[in-house]
Amino acid sequence: MDSLSTGRVADVLARLHRDAEAADRQLIEAYSSQGATQEQMIGQILEQEAKDLKALYGGLAGNFLNVTPEFGRFCYIAARACKATHIVEFGTSMGISTIYLAAALRDNGGGTLIGTELEPAKAARARENLEAAGLDDLAEVRVGDARETLKQVDGGLDLVLLDGAFSLYLDVLKLLEPRLKTGALIVGENAFEQASGYIQYVRDPRNGYLSQPMAQDPGRGNELTVVTR
Ligand SMILES: C[S@@+](CC[C@H](N)C(=O)[O-])C[C@H]1O[C@@H](n2cnc3c(N)ncnc32)[C@H](O)[C@@H]1O
Predict the structure, then answer these.
(1) Per residue in 170-180, pLDDT tens?
(2) Does the pLDDT at position 1 exceed 90?
(3) Where is this region: Disordered (predicted)?
(4) Which of 18, 42, 71, 112 is the most buried (most CB within 10 A)?
């Protein structure tokens, strides 16, 4: 049996998805009531990130902004399929995606996950949630800007999840690039074409990747990339 279907991990994830829905409801309603197109919303977020990224995410410190259960399961399946033992996650928040990925490490027989989160209070909650799920021995959550916290990462990465500030995906990828194994998977959530040049970079095969949008949740910027070099 896998850890997602039953037991402690399944219970903690069910509780966290409920908590997340309650905590983020107002924010989601506020965005949808603006009547803005998705393009406009992405544009607004990118503008805010460019102006003051720390203030933007500081203002969202009480929000989960989490992956959906379907996307979380996709991350688990991807990590199981490539028998991942070394994972990095950009954008840990309260640890929901971290739990899906750490559960895959556990079911793969062990490994290490490095997560990174700008907001100290969120990182602390992520650690508590990992502990509640019995996965804290597999995951380290680094506090601070990923452009600093991910400078020291060992090689041999099997999988990277990019789910932080939209405008930083290319910077974070470039930082991790020398540590990626051939065949490693990079899962991008909210990897939008108008942000950072990330999509253009990974879709150019000359850069050593093969990449395409995922069919899941179209419009949410889900991109699956494999390292081909
Ligand atoms: C979309 S949420 C991540 C959700 C999480 N992956 C989950 O499924 O529960 C993005 C997170 O990235 C964090 N973040 C934004 N910019 C960051 C940066 N430069 N370094 C580290 N974390 C950052 C934000 O504080 C926010 O909590």
Answers:
(1) 999 999 999 99
(2) no
(3) 210-229
(4) 71
Structural contact between residues 214 and 190, judged by C-beta atoms closer than 8 angstroms = no
Q: Which residues line ligand 1 (CB under 6 A)?
A: 57, 64-67, 91-94, 96-97, 116-119, 122, 145-146, 163-165, 168
Question: In this predicted model, what pLDDT tens digit does every residue of 49-60 receive, in sequence order?
Answer: 999 999 999 999
b or e along 119-148 (b: 16 or more beta carbons within 10 Å of the residue's beta carbon)? beebbebbbebbebbbbbebbebbbebbbe
Ligand 1 site-directed mutation target among 17, 57, 169, most atoms within 8 Å of CB: 57
Question: Rounded to whole angstroms, how far apart are CA atoms 45 and 131?
Answer: 32
- Dist. CA 196–CA 192, nearest whole Å: 8
> Can you tell me the ipTM of this complex?
0.99
Q: Tell me, in angstroms, the distance from the centre of ligand 1 to residue 90's CA.
A: 7
**pLDDT, tens digit, for every residue of 4-17?**
999 999 999 999 99
Which one, of 214, 158, 157, lies nearest residue 191 by Cα? 214
Please list the residues that pair with 187 across neighbouring strands.
161, 224
Task: Please state, in angstroms and rounded to a whole number, the distance separating the CA atoms of residues 229 and 226.
Answer: 9
SS3 content of the chain, % helix, strand, coil (to 5): 50, 20, 35
Domains and CATH numbers, the chain: 1-229 (3.40.50.150)
